[in-house]
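As a warm-up, study this chain.
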Amino acid sequence: MYKTIMVGVDGSKPAEKAFEVAVDLAKRYDARLLIVSIYSPPAIALLGDIPPYPPTVPKEVAEKIEPLLKKYEEKAKKEGIKVVESKIVPTWDNPGAGFVTEAEKQGCALTVIGSRGLTGVKRALLGSVAEYIVKNAHCSVHIVR
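Now compare it with the structure written out below.
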């Protein structure tokens, strides 16, 4: 049913829970598991010079995120997932849009994301990556609380 499952990780507790669910689903469906971390440069980076296209991941950011992705990859392989890949996906758009674009590009049948459960003013000010993904994804979305 699900040949490719993509999970978004960022080191947070909701992302950790989403990863666990994604691993369980990938085992159940014998699916390829793609572990991604979306990098969206701060808005201040757009001021001044013309930014590179496509966006690039700064070395200091990559040095922080790549070990996290490798840790998740190793965990998934220990759990018996046969095909596991991980990557940092840079985007000039918001993280939700970067996630949706990568899921479509990878031909995902299911995406799994954690939700921080923001409500009220915080949600209005910060927006909701999960909400964006649910509204715009081409495939099924599993939100883990």
